[in-house]
Structure formats: structure tokens, C-alpha cells
Amino acid sequence: MKIKGLCIALLLVLVMTGCKKRDFSSERQQMILFQYDYRSSSHHYGYYIDSEGNVYTYNDPEEWNMPDNDLEISQELISENSGNTVYSGIKISEDELSRYAKVIDYIASSKVTAPGKNANSEGTVQYICYRFNGNYQKYKGCLVRSEGRITRENLNFHAKRITQWMDEIGAKVLTR
Predict the structure, then answer these.
(1) Which regions of the chain are under pLDDT 50?
(2) 82, 101, 116, 166: which has the fewest C-beta neighbours closer than 10 Å?
(3) Which residue pairs, CB below 8 angstroms and at least 24 apart, start in 100-105?
């Protein structure tokens, strides 16, 4: 009887401490998780999804800091960019955001296709997800897909789903 009571008490402790839902975004303490970015010679617009699920848009900002060639950008430059964004009124639910945020590491560890030429020269669209390195206060962007004169795609099977999801969000928040 004593063992049975101890087992029940132990089970209750495990249930109470182990059932907390995992919050992928706050673990990383990062400002942005995903970015859709369109650039042409005459336009620059897109949106960010932050770690709270808020969607912020930008449309031809006067100043904008781009990630470097390795898609790295500092927290400071991201903060400057956020001053050039507008809250869209759209907030992604915690469950939905978590479902997509948890595959960022898989996207980051996957290969991207070699650049392919495309007849489309209107502009370039990039779908990017970010991982944050708190030690260096830098974001490392991971290319999900790039469309335009040069087309590239992440080979992870989650990439198509993320691209589709980001297109659905873009249809709600972007005015072109």
C-alpha cells in the first residue's frame, strides 16, 4: 500500500511538471522566425512573423538592412528594420506557429538546390526562416525558397509546406 501511494505521488509530480507545452519561439528569445521578402528594381515589400505570432509588413521602406550573403543579420539590424514595419492585425495562433517553428532546425540542416535560371526577371521572392544565436546576438537565415531570375529550393520536405503557408499569410497581408 505504501509503494502504491508513493507511485501515485511520483506520477502526479511527473504529470504536473512534464505536461507544460513547449514554446519553441520563446526558448530562442528571437524577434523573428519567418520572413517573406520581395525585391525588384522598383519595389521592396514583405512581412515578418515574430516569435509571438504577430505578422508585420513593410512596403518600400526608406531604409532596410538586408542579411549578408550567408543570410546572417544582427539583432540590432533586425531591431532597426522593425521600426520600418507595420502590424498587419494578423496574429498566428500559438499552435500553428509552434507547428512551423519546430521544423526550422530541419530546414536549416537540409541542402538547397543549385541555382537554376528562370525567365522571370520581374523580381526576386525569398522565403526565409531564422535561427537565433543568443551568444552572438545574430540571426542565421535559412533559405526555404527563392523565386525570380534565379530559383533555389530547400530540399527538406517541410519546405513546400512552409512556402505554401507563407503564401497563404501573404495573400492576407500584402498589398502589391
Answers:
(1) 4-28
(2) 116
(3) 100/33, 100/34, 100/162, 100/165, 101/24, 101/25, 101/33, 102/24, 103/156, 103/158, 103/162, 104/24, 104/33, 104/129, 104/130, 104/131, 104/142, 105/131
